[in-house]
Amino acid sequence: MPVISTSAVRRTALGATGAAVAGIGYASLIERNAFVLREATMPVLPPGSSSLRVLHISDLHMMPGQKLKQQWLRELDRLEPDLVVNTGDNLSHQKSVPAVVQALGGLLSRPGLFVFGSNDYFAPVAKNPMKYFKKDHRRVYGAPLPWKDLRAAFTERGWLDLTHVRRDLEVAGVRIATAGVDDPHLQRDRYDTVAGAPNPLADLRIGLTHSPEPRVLDRFAADGYDLVLAGHTHGGQLVLPGYGALVTNCGIDKSRVKGPSKWGEHTQLHVSAGIGTSPWAPYRFCCRPEATLLTLVAAPPKRPAAENNHGFSTSETVAR
């Protein structure tokens, strides 16, 4: 057998350690602050409809001192979306509400919809990262967060809370029927409170949930919703080139961990990879923090799916 010298083993170990340190440094210092605006076109409107621009934001996980993130969020108002959708996990600290409200700025003056996630109700806590690979692990909750203050701030400015309610609205001439559930990740979803077919006169039917759990997506699809928006997954947060996300942190498969996809025959799903991270896991790798500008357009006549297997076009624009 070949003889491997002690010095060679030491060099290999030092090289591996150096690579790991460099990767952690990149993931925690660079990529988690490399915010990006993604764009996607989704054909969900009736034939002949004008397009609708929807800004989907999620998982801010805001800390009061995160000035770079707050400045980037403020600049999103320049996009002039017709509708803003926030799918939860806005907070990471008891004093974060003012930072979230100020960062969202002009977006709160635009039509908006929201539901909350676990990190609107409870502060994040340190945990063994291996627990993310075990879906039935026991959950540990942090200190209560001021979600009622955040809800008041949103609703006072006109955003609609869709937690276990159905609401109809008109945006840019498009009649929209909407419904939402509380966070399935905390087992707080009560879909029966919004069950049933949405308004048949609506041009578009949108469902909201923080965590894209299949049991909830199945109910929205069965009731005839055209589009469901969700967050929670962080896009996997750690993504290996050639392999993809390590985990989704919920029941969906890795192919749907972020971006647009189909759920069933009729319903389309968009999962945001989110803007922040837990303060106890402040890193992203090959999964930049993001907001998404969705351009909703008229659905074409039924035909085979496009080359990307989903029938959607996507692009990426860096916004700093």
Task: Explain the overall architecture.
- The protein is α/β, with parallel strands linked by helices.
- It has 6 helices and 15 strands.
- The strands form 3 sheets. Strands 5-4-3-2-14-1-15 form a 7-stranded mixed β-sheet, covered by helices on one side. It has a 6-stranded mixed β-sheet with strand order 6-7-8-9-13-12, with helices on one face. Strands 10-11 form a two-stranded antiparallel ribbon.
- Strand 12 and strand 13 form a beta hairpin.
- Helix 2 runs parallel beside helix 3 (97-104).
- The radius of gyration is 20 Å and the shape is globular.
- The protein starts with 5 loop residues before the first helix and ends with a strand.
- Residues 12-21 have low confidence and may be disordered.
What is the gist of this entry?
With 320 residues, this protein is α/β, with parallel strands linked by helices.
End-to-end CA span: 55 Å
pLDDT averaged over residues = 89
Largest sheet: 7 strands, mixed
- Estimated radius of gyration: 20 Å
The count of helical stretches stands at 6
Shape: globular
User: Which runs of at least 5 residues are low in confidence (pLDDT < 50)?
Assistant: 12-21
Order of helices and strands: HEEHEHEHHEEEEHEEEEEEE
Can you list the strand order of the major beta sheet? 5-4-3-2-14-1-15
Structural class: alpha/beta
- Percent range of helical residues: 10-25%
- The fraction of residues in strands falls at 15-25%
Counted beta strands: 15
